[in-house]
Amino acid sequence: QVQLVESGGGLVQPGGSLRLSCAASGSIFRIYDMGWFRQAPGKQRELVAGITSGGSTNYADSVKGRFTISRDNAKNTVYLQMNSLKPEDTAVYYCNANLVRINYWGQGTQVTVSS
What is residue 26's DSSP assignment? Predict the structure, then answer.
């Protein structure tokens, strides 16, 4: 029903920045809560940042002050601005759309912080 496509991942040096984008289909995008999750090999998938349909945000303690989640409902897109990147931020980042019991997931985009 809701299709999500992430982009913007890549390889950056520690201290660098990346901006992830998640493009969503559907005319009801605006009513979904949106989030960015990440998963490193051998680790649990964890919530990085969330933004509600009303614009309220929350962040994992590990990224507070460095990452910013935002949404543009007119463009059906959610963003994750990542600054001051650390090697421990390396993971596959997934976009999520949530409404009550329903969750939709993107395919993921790799973020590697190295060298």
Answer: S
CA 86 – CA 72 distance, rounded (Å): 27
Q: 3-state SS string over 34-89?
A: EEEEEECCCCCCEEEEEECCCCCEEECHHHCCCEEEEEEHHHCEEEEEECCCCHHH
In the block, tokens 């463009």 appear at 75
The amino acid present at 17, given as its one-letter code, is S
For residue 47, count other CB atoms closer than 10 A to its CB: 13
Give just the sign of the alpha carbon dihedral 112, 19, 64, 48: negative
Contact call for residues 48 and 63 (beta carbons, < 8 A): yes
Q: Residue 88, Cβ neighbours under 10 Å: how many? A: 10
Model confidence pLDDT, tens digit, residues 47-69 = 999 999 999 999 999 999 999 99
> How do 18-24 and 10-12 pair as beta strands?
unpaired
How many residues make up the chain in this entry? Answer: 115
